[in-house]
Structure to design on (1206 residues):
């Protein structure tokens, strides 16, 4: 027993006081999970992206505010030649972290690598690029097969890798039986970085230590009126497996920023602390309810509209999301102002529960639905009703609303539960059924075996190419993105036209029209767009740049400066 | 939980005595045991809670444990006159949820335990009575299943198959919790098999089925019943842990679910009124069944009476 | 002895093989495929199909099984979908952490259980016995995740004494000034709360086992003889009764291993202890088949071998058993 007590006492004594030398001017960021990999081609998750976006830079990036693409590694706007269907891009004289120059060869290499390996997530952006050639060291020419609007908005935003580092790896991978699998399994000890920071050390599961990249092109440069740094010596990403630990660390000052959405419950915890600043930013996200249009009962648009009427999005946002979000009325979120459809469908007006049931009831009656016991009595009061009967007199069978499991997303699971109850008010027997994410996608996307589901895309591209992808009839096959099985020739024509239209104004008109159609036909019912609530301390560093997607972004990390106090003095 | 009788308590085989008389005799032993009494009292409290759980939704729809929200409450609030234990983040009444959770706990615990006992007793009796290859096979199977940590297995299965229905969970728990029982019952059956009264039955021309069900079963049932109380605790704990990790049935308001909500929505620091009750209930109901089991153990095993229990 | 161990090992191999097979079948039967975890709106159906083919998930199931068995024998568990690293590498990085936490917890709680169980039996019926027995009963039936949250709430939040997550702190390990002792202390510091949680959960059952076993021993003839010889009570307790009474505790540790592992996984998850149980829970929710499968297998293996070790220990300490 004495031994036990001894160990306990020993452990209770806090570790020796730490010298502050090494972490002066080092930003500490708390993350929930560490990057799954520093292999750019494998890592598609947000946690990896937090780190990788500081290494692998893009030719063009979105600027805060209007989210317009501005040159980053590129030196100016891309020059389009309609005759040859080609774009020419000039490059900045930048350097990699090993001191070697960033050249047109790197760009050519990156594009060709993606095409050769058909790298998931990137290939579709490069499949229509016929050729990539270096014109001198600092100019690249891309020739396309066909005009495509996503070239400038998305293809040119591909992160670039260093030819010198990847060429030997690619050779090895091509020699194996499964080149792509081999490529995805490559693990790099020291990724060459063209960004503001470079990897110093990574202790799995605990921290990733980055230091300033002395060769970063942005140092001392002012881009878009923003003086780039970095003005800090390095970043330590500290992995906290649970939010409670990370929030506690933020309160204590062990971290300067928690790079994750802060759950509503914690807000009360940090609200009173003047050293902690809470930022609320929009996300480029879409959380929606989808219907299966391929089979009854949701093949009937009237029933879908009635459901849309019954779903109280305001309730979901205020209660389930605790106000950390906004009601979504169209597909493109309001934060993406240029493509946002500012038009409210009848079901998105502010209505009381009773009014919603009343209107849904009216829609259903008009479409020929009946009940043995109606949901509204003669006086117009809600009452418990019998099962809804279709115009042909058969019962609407009990249906299932698939949602992700509660551990993955408690809010969507809970929304599904609420929708289930609301549908019951007009006699639609629905049951929300949370299931494992993979299993759910397989059912919805792979087998089309579902009635309705609640899903969300947390990180949609700002370019609205996906609006077409979700609803064009050619994507309605198994595994395709048109999960609802929506088939509308008018929509298809508009989508086709939008893909080929390069003029932003004209393209915008088409995208708005497409959204309006979806609003009427309700293959998807947009539900909400969660606000990203983030918290950062202001006692060590200042200068966070808010933008869609939160304050954790490249701009912030290039612009942050030590705020007063000893750290700032040391920096000077 | 881990603590169960490790060695098969040797139940003195009895001829089938009139049940009532035997019950009174056992009750006397049981009621002298303070721990058993405490367990029974605690359990009755939970029984009352389970019955009361039907009340709140009748008083006002806002007291519905899953879907009822207080229109005046937008955030989690502490105890008040309207909500004796406070509300959760959506404005749902915690007391109503706690009561509903009692019902779920009983349902899960008793049904899973019952199923696993039925399985365990049948397999144990068959293995013990049949012997030979069948015995070896069944016991090997039992060994394999015993090695597996039930929670992790059920977690994996329920996540893999995406069927998180509460009854599936109950079934899975039952499927993985029979080996312990079956081993004890098998040992018991083996010793009974060689007793004269079984021989007598055999000589009298009784069929195997008759011997197993009429002569062996009544003698192993008390032991099975004892094991059932331990299985109830195991089932409740596994379901709660599963729900806590986020793999529970979200349309059920169980205590594990409540803990998952308070943890995952970030209220655990700010809302002790929400954090404390569900965990306390899980712990206490486990304790009450456990105490009951120990007391019954003493009833069944006269050697233990004096020592006040083995584990 | 050697023969016994060999036969037990053979048995373990057979059981493992069966578990491997069952696992394989279960994992392939399950709906949902790993590729769907990697999707985002820009991944076209062809890209998805391409990825499936590259990862070998489209082969006939028999072929997949044979390859799996072969790989398993070679100790090659494939690549984790999530990390893109060999599964062996991921697991081996976590295994020592689990063993450190788990073994320490088990040994400490068994020792405490034996020490306190001895006292309880000796003072049977007195206040100390009542207090210990009730404490054991109550702590032993606590709901572990809740206990963990309580411990975090009290010591991490209210009192702010101890770290509530992870195993080491970046500050100490990044600081070039910290030596080995600082690092060791840092680990110990992080281990206090998860260790305390597991300890509170487990000592009770060992205490109760020790108590009843000790009570039985005290009625044995040789104790009565010792008393008759006029030995001091303390000597009888510590040198005659206890050495024989604590053997059942060992058996009890072995029997409860599978359950304790459940608790270990929960503790690791709540405290973010970078161990294998937490890895399994995460792999399961991420549909990372190879990783989940291998972690589970490893856990089963650990339980099997631990049981063997427990049996051998028992034989070693019990003078009556010789193989």
């Amino acid at each position: 027993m004495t031994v036990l007590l001894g160990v306990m006492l020993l452990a209770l004594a806090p570790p020796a006081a730490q010298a502050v030398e090494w972490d002066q001017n080092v930003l500490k960021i708390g993350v929930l999970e560490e990057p799954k990999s520093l292999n750019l081609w494998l890592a598609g998750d947000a946690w990896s992206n937090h780190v990788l976006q500081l290494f692998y830079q893009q030719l063009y990036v979105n600027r805060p505010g209007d989210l317009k693409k501005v040159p980053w590694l590129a030196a100016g706007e891309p020059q389009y030649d309609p005759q040859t269907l080609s774009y020419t891009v000039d490059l900045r004289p930048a350097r990699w972290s090993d001191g070697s120059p960033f050249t047109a060869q790197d760009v050519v290499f990156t594009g060709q690598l993606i095409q050769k390996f058909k790298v998931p997530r990137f290939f579709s952006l490069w499949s229509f690029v016929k050729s990539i050639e270096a014109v001198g060291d600092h100019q690249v020419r891309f020739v396309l097969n066909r005009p495509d609007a996503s070239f400038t908005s998305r293809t040119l935003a591909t992160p670039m890798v260093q030819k010198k580092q990847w060429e030997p790896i690619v050779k090895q991978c091509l020699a194996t039986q499964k080149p792509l699998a081999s490529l995805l399994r490559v693990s790099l000890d020291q990724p060459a970085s063209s960004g503001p920071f470079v990897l110093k050390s990574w202790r799995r599961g605990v921290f990733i230590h980055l230091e300033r990249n002395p060769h970063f092109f942005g140092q001392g440069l002012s881009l878009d009126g923003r003086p780039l740094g970095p003005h800090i010596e390095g970043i330590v990403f500290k992995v906290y497996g649970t939010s409670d630990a990370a929030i506690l660390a933020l309160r204590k000052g062990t971290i300067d920023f928690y790079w994750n959405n802060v759950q509503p419950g914690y807000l009360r915890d940090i609200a009173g602390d003047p050293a902690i600043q809470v930022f609320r930013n929009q996300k480029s996200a879409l959380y929606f309810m989808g219907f299966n249009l391929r089979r009854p009962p949701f093949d009937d648009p009237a029933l879908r509209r009635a459901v849309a009427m019954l779903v109280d999005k305001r309730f979901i946002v205020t209660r389930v999301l605790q106000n950390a979000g906004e009601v979504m009325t169209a597909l493109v979120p309001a934060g993406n102002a240029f493509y946002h459809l500012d038009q409210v469908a009848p079901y998105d007006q502010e209505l009381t529960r009773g009014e919603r049931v009343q209107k849904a009831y009216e829609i259903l009656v008009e479409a020929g639905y009946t009940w043995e016991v109606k949901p509204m009595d003669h006086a117009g009061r809600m009452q418990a009703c019998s099962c809804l009967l279709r115009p042909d007199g058969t019962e609407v069978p009990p249906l299932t609303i698939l949602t992700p499991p509660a551990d993955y997303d408690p809010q969507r699971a809970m929304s599904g539960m609420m929708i289930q109850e609301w549908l019951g008010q007009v006699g639609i027997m629905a049951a929300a059924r949370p299931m494992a994410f993979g299993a759910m996608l397989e059912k919805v996307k792979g087998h089309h075996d579902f009635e309705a589901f609640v899903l969300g895309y947390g990180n949609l591209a700002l370019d609205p190419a996906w609006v077409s992808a979700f609803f064009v009839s050619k994507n309605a096959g198994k595994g395709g993105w048109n999960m609802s099985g929506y088939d509308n020739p008018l929509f298809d024509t508009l989508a086709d036209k939008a893909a080929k239209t390069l003029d932003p104004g004209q393209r915008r008109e088409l995208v708005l029209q497409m959204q309006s159609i979806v609003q009427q036909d309700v293959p998807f019912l947009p539900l909400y767009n969660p606000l990203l609530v983030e918290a950062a301390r202001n006692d060590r560093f200042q200068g966070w740049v808010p933008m869609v997607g939160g304050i954790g972004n490249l701009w912030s990390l290039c612009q942050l400066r030590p705020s007063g106090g000893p750290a700032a003095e040391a920096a000077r | 939980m881990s603590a169960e009788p490790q060695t098969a308590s040797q139940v003195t085989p009895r001829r089938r005595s009139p049940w009532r008389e035997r019950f009174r005799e056992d009750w006397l032993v049981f009621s002298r045991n303070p721990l058993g009494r405490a367990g029974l009292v605690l359990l009755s409290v939970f029984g009352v809670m389970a019955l009361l759980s039907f009340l709140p939704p009748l008083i006002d729809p806002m007291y519905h444990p899953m879907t009822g929200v207080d229109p005046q409450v937008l955030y989690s609030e502490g105890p008040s006159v309207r909500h004796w234990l406070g509300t959760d983040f959506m404005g749902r009444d915690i007391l109503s949820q706690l009561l509903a959770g009692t019902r779920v706990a009983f349902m899960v615990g008793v049904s899973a335990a019952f199923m696993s006992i039925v399985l365990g007793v049948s397999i144990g009796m068959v293995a013990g009575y049949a012997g030979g290859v069948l015995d070896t096979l069944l016991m090997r199977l039992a060994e394999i299943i015993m090695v597996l940590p039930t929670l992790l297995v059920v977690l994996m299965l329920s996540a893999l198959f995406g069927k998180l229905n509460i009854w599936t969970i109950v079934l899975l728990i039952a499927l993985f919790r029979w080996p312990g029982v079956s081993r004890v019952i098998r040992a018991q059956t083996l010793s009974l098999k060689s007793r004269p009264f079984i021989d007598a039955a055999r000589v009298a021309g009784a069929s195997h089925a008759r011997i197993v069900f009429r002569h062996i079963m009544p003698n192993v049932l008390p032991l099975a019943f004892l094991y059932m109380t331990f299985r109830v605790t195991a089932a409740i704990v596994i379901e709660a842990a599963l729900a806590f990790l986020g793999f529970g049935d979200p349309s059920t308001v169980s205590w594990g679910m409540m803990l998952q909500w308070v943890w995952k929505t970030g209220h655990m620091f700010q809302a002790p009124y929400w954090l404390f009750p569900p965990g306390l209930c899980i712990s206490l109901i486990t304790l009450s069944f456990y105490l009951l089991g120990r007391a019954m153990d003493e009833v069944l095993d006269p050697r233990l009476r004096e020592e006040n229990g083995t584990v | 002895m050697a023969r016994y161990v060999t036969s037990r090992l053979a048995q373990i191999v057979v059981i493992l093989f069966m578990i491997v097979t069952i696992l394989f079948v279960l994992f392939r039967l399950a709906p949902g495929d790993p590729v769907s975890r990697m999707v985002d709106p820009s991944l076209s159906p062809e890209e998805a199909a391409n990825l499936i083919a590259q990862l070998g998930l489209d082969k006939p199931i028999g072929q997949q099984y044979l390859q799996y068995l072969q790989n398993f024998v070679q100790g090659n568990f494939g690549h984790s979908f999530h990390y893109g690293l060999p599964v062996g590498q991921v697991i081996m990085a976590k295994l020592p952490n689990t063993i450190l936490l788990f073994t320490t917890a088990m040994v400490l709680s068994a020792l405490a259980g034996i020490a306190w169980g001895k006292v309880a039996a000796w003072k049977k019926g007195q206040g100390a016995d009542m207090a210990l027995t009730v404490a054991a009963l109550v702590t032993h039936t606590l709901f572990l995740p809740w206990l963990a949250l309580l411990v975090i709430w009290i010591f991490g939040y209210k009192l702010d004494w101890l770290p509530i997550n992870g195993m080491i702190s970046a500050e100490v390990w990044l600081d070039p000034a910290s030596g080995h002792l600082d690092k060791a202390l840092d680990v110990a510091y992080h281990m206090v709360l998860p260790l305390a949680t597991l300890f509170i959960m487990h000592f009770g059952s060992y205490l109760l086992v020790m108590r009843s076993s000790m009570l039985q021993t005290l009625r044995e003839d040789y104790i009565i003889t010792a008393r008759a010889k006029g030995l001091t009570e303390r000597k009888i307790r510590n040198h005659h009764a206890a050495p024989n009474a604590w053997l059942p505790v060992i058996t009890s540790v072995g029997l409860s291993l599978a359950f304790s592992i459940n608790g270990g996984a929960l503790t690791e998850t709540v405290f973010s202890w970078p161990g294998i149980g937490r890895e399994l829970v995460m792999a399961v929710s991420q549909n990372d088949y190879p990783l989940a499968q291998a972690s589970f297998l490893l856990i089963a293996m650990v339980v099997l071998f631990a049981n063997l070790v427990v049996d051998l220990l028992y034989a070693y300490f019990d003078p009556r058993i010789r193989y």
Remarks:
- Residues 32-70+82-308 of chain B form a domain with the MetI-like fold fold (CATH 1.10.3720.10).
- The two ends of chain B are 11 Å apart (CA to CA).
- Chain B touches chain A through 32 residues (CB under 8 Å).
- Confidence is low (pLDDT under 50) at residues 1-13, 304-311 of chain B.
